Structure formats: C-alpha cells, structure tokens
Amino acid sequence: GAGVSQSPSNKVTEKGKDVELRCDPISGHTALYWYRQSLGQGLEFLIYFQGNSAPDKSGLPSDRFSAERTGGSVSTLTIQRTQQEDSAVYLCASSLQGKTSYEQYFGPGTRLTVT
Amino acid sequence: DQQVKQNSPSLSVQEGRISILNCDYTNSMFDYFLWYKKYPAEGPTFLISISSIKDKNEDGRFTVFLNKSAKHLSLHIVPSQPGDSAVYFCAAYGAGSYQLTFGKGTKLSVIP
Q: What radius of gyration do chain B's Cα atoms show?
C-alpha cells in the first residue's frame, strides 16, 4: 500500500518568506509526527497529532512554527518568516495509534533551504 | 544535552562478517528502543525494536541487545551484506511519551 508522502521534496526560499510543508500519512493511521534533521544531527521531534488535535507541541522551536491537521489525515507544517537556521530536512511520520503502536513510518522528507 | 548517543559516526565491515552498532542513553525513563535504517534521500525505515523488559530481540539477521544497568544497546547484523550499507539510527521512547528521541546515527559501509 501507499506509504507516507510529503511535498514538496525540495524547497528553496528566501529568508523572511513563509513556507508550507505537506504530509499525507498512511491511510488509517491516527497518529502523525513531525521531525526535522539538521546537518550532522539526529532527528529532532517537533509536534505530535492524535487525530486532529496536537497534545504535544513541545518540540516546536519558536512561534514562527505552526502545524495543523485536518480530517484526521493531511497535515501542514508552516514556518513563517524563515531564517537560515530553519534549513533542514523536515520528516513526517505516522503510526496506528500513538504509543499503542510503537513503530513510526516515515515519509521521504522535505529538504528546506533558506537562502 | 544528548539523551541518546551513537558515538561512532561511521563503521566499515567486510561482507559476511558481523556488524555491531552501539548506542548509549542517559534517560532512565526510556522504556522502548528502536533501530531505524536510512538510505540517502529516503525517510528512516523501521528495523527492529526492544522493550525495556527484555534483553534481546532477534529478527532474521538482526539482533538487538539491551543492557539496562549500563544504559546501552547494540544492534548486531550477521552476516553483513552490501545492501546493509546505510545510516543506522537508535531511538527511544520515554514512559508515557509519544516523542521518539534519536541519536545522531552511525553510517555503516559493508565492503564486498
């Protein structure tokens, strides 16, 4: 079946512009996660959705970052007024029901470059 | 403060030999551990996991060992194959948490 998909695969933007990154989770997966991987670093947790609500937003680095999920499916991560330190690969993952299903399935990521 | 540490950035192994990837953690609240494999330009792929109530889990060529007292886990791949060449990430869940905490990864190269 279809895995997690993300778009765009690559995004180059100028400092100060807003960007939207999209994630389509595996059908039927109620839990959705956003991570980012900066150069030479491990994956850093950003936010977790269960259905359309986000019980854990603790990883969002600043108020320039926001995310929403609609219909218990597609999620959008928005970064406002992008900065060069926002350059990273942004990864989305989904799982069946949060902690009751430990495996998270990852998409291919969106590589964001802020110039 | 890194809670999951993979101290070897890279590892080279001959085809057919054993690959041993190591991971240390500092947070005693971690209760479930996973290994992911990542190829370039792809997302991480789940490989194998282990609960803190076990000390070993095996799946084909892959075995994960957990030493809770030492806060150490390792992934053994036997025999190693060229297709195993990838970056391997160790990750952990804390009790009651939905966040996966990842190490920085170890790049494994299996030489034919």
A: 13
A43, A45, A100, A110: which to substitute to probe chain B, counting the most B Cβ within 10 Å? A43
Distances (CA, A) of A30 to A3, A11, A59, A75, A91: 14, 27, 20, 12, 17
Burial (Cβ within 10 Å: 0-12, 13-18, ≥19) of residue A84 = exposed
Task: Please report which confidence band the pLDDT of residue B50 belongs to, taking 50, 70 and 90 as the band edges.
Answer: very high
User: For B109, how many CA atoms within 13 A lie in the half-sphere containing its CB?
Assistant: 6
pLDDT, residue B99, reads 84
Q: Which residues of B touch A106 (CB under 8 A)?
A: 36, 43-45
Contact B104 A105 (CB under 8 A): no
- Is A100's pLDDT higher than 60? no
Neighbouring C-beta atoms of residue A71, cutoff 10 Å: 7
Are A56 and B99 in contact (CB < 8 Å)? yes
Q: Please write the tens of the pLDDT for every residue from A11-65.
A: 999 999 999 999 999 998 999 999 999 988 889 999 999 999 988 888 999 999 9
**Is the CB of residue A105 less than 8 Å from the CB of residue A5?**
no
Q: In this complex, do B104 and A40 lie within 8 Å of one another by their Cβ atoms?
A: yes
Percent of chain B topping pLDDT 70: 100
